[in-house]
Structures are given as structure tokens and as C-alpha cells.
Amino acid sequence: MTAPALEAWQPELREVIATTRSFTLRSEIVGGAFAVWVTVPPGYGAGDAALPVLYVADGNTQLAITAPTGSLMMMHETSPIRPFIQVTIGYLGDDARNFLKVRNRDLVPPGEPFPHQMAAHLRPRVERGTLSEEQYAAILADLSHSAGDRFLAFIERELHPRIAERWRVDADDVGLFGYSYGGLFAMYVFATASPLFTVIGASSPGILSAQSEVFRRYDRRIAEGDSTLPPRLHLTINDSETSSEFALYRDLSHNYLALVDRIRRTPLPGLRATAEVIRGETHGTGIVDAYRSFVRSCYTVRGHDPRTELAWPVEPHPN
User: In the record, what terms sit under GO molecular function (predicted)?
Assistant: First the structure.
């Protein structure tokens, strides 16, 4: 008996993730095009209430991980999650094939000190043949010409208005989640006091310098007595990063702890912050648990949060 032949299948995205639609948007501010995936919560078509919207960076790697995870969490009966619309941002074409390079342009703050650890960290990939000399040079070049401010302006002024026009978005409940360099971008957005976001999650944020723009801008807000109500903030790090064999991740964890210490010692007025250490995961594998930690901490229906002991409400530092 002959086994049936396998037939090639190129499904539409909606056949794989039924609640997700995709479109492309060219940014005049950034000077490039983006792929955008919008995932609505289960039962979205049955109501007319405005919903929170959550922007997620690094869509080419994180769409398939975070969007279905969020939808499943919303259907969990014993720990209900407030429904939200997720907007995942990534790249297409050549930019998608070279996303490790292009994300450096968009997720790293302007003026961020050059991460020499990154150059050393990526060099073995060239030796193994998984990264060409040209790709290696291009990645480092974009780190020298980072433009996270333009990517932020793209979200605020070009993307969000389009999302708000087409989907039922609560203008007072806008979130941002980022991991690694996405977490660095999230903390840059937090430190710059973007008026758009009310909830921010920064997981294993790629702060690789004690002179990071994140620290500089945060310290300036404190020095100037900025009383702007900051977004709700949730931070995570993976336990293995603190003792990793790679210096890059040890430096990241050192600066993460410096960030937590700053927030504890000199909090912005009105800041609500939580943090969690992700157990048993590495920088490369921690994204799923980091995303779940953020969603549980910031979108759980009030009164049903099983992790309230993790919260560390920040109190003003005594003068």
C-alpha cells in the first residue's frame, strides 16, 4: 500500500492564528516599512467595549510565541485575564531576513553607548559560519547609528492612530512589552515619559552600559522633579543570566539590578512597579515565561491575581 503523498501548503495567517490579521505600513519617520500583526481577544466580535491595546516588539520571532499565549491566558477560568488587543511589530522582505541588524536601528536609544560586549559575543558566530563578515559588520554599524526615538515616534504618530481608527481601543490603556533589546526600548520609552503608554513591561532589558540613556534620562527626570504619572511597570530577568558563561548577560544582569536599585531608592512620584525572577530559563528561552509574567501582573482581573506577593509598591525615598 502506497503512503499518501505530502502536499505543499502555504496557509494564510488567519488559517493558523485565526484571530490575527496582518498589514504593512511604511513609516516616513523611520524611512522603512513594517509588518504589523493585530490579534484580537476571543469573543472580540460579540461586544462593543473599548479594549486595552498592547504593542509588542520583535514580531518576527515573538508573534507565534506571544499572541497565542495571550489568547490562551484570556480563556483561563481560574485566573482571568482582561481581554486586550495585541499589536505585534516586525519586518518584511530583506529586513525580516536581517532582523538582527534592523532591530538594532529601532530598539536601541539614540546616543546609547556602543556595546563592545555585543561585538565579542557575536564574533564566534562568524567563526562558526552562521553569520557572514558582512552581516556582522552591518549589525555593529546599526548599533552605532541607533534611532529608537524614531521608532517610538512611528508607534505614537503613525501606527497607533491607524490602530485606533480600525479597532476598539481604550485610549487610556495602552501597553508596551519588550524582551532583550525590546526591553531596552521599553525602558527607554519609560524613561522618556512617552504620553502614549500607561503600562510597560521590560524583560531582561539589554542595558549593557552604566552610562545607558535609560539611566541618564531617568536621572534627569528625578533631578527636574518631573511629576508626570509614570506608566505601570513590570520587570523580569532570568536567573541564569546573573551567572551566565557569557559576559554579555552578566553585564545585562548587573545593569538590571542597578535599574531596580535606582527605582527603589529614587522612585518617580506615583510609580507602581513589580518584578519577578524567571527560574530555570536562559536569555534565549525566557521569553514565554517573561511575557506570561507581564500579562499576569498587569492584565489579571482585579481580585484574582495569584501572585500579589510579587508586588513591590515603591514608596518615596525619605529625604
Answer: hydrolase activity
Give the containing element (helix H, strand E) for 118.
Answer: helix 116-128
CA distance 193 to 172: 15
Q: Model's pTM, two decimal places?
A: 0.90
Residue 126 is predicted with a pLDDT of: 87
- Give domain status of residue 6, yes or no: no
Domain that holds residue 54: 17-300
From CA 176, how far away is CA 244, in angstroms rounded?
Answer: 27
How many domains are there within the chain?
1
The amino acid occupying position 121 is H
C-alpha dihedral over 188, 193, 195, 200, to 10 degrees?
50
Residue 245: burial class (beta carbons within 10 Å; 0-12, 13-18, 19+): exposed
Between residues 127 and 63, the one the model is more confident about: 63
Gap between the Cα atoms of 109 and 147, Å rounded: 6
**CATH number (domain holding residue 38):** 3.40.50.1820
Residue 96 vs residues 76, 99, 150, 247: alpha-carbon distances, Å: 33, 5, 19, 28
Question: Does 11 reside within a domain?
Answer: no
Beta bridge partners of 39: 20, 86
114 vs 267, residue with greater confidence: 267
From residue 93, alpha-carbon distances to 60, 103, 132, 137 in Å are 11, 14, 19, 20
For the stretch 24-63, pLDDT in tens is 999 999 999 999 999 999 888 777 899 999 999 999 999 9
The answer to whether residue 259 is domain-embedded is yes
Q: What are 51's strand-pairing partners?
A: 169
Domain contains 289: yes
Residue 139 CB coordination number (10 Å): 20
CA 1 to mean position of chain CA atoms: 51
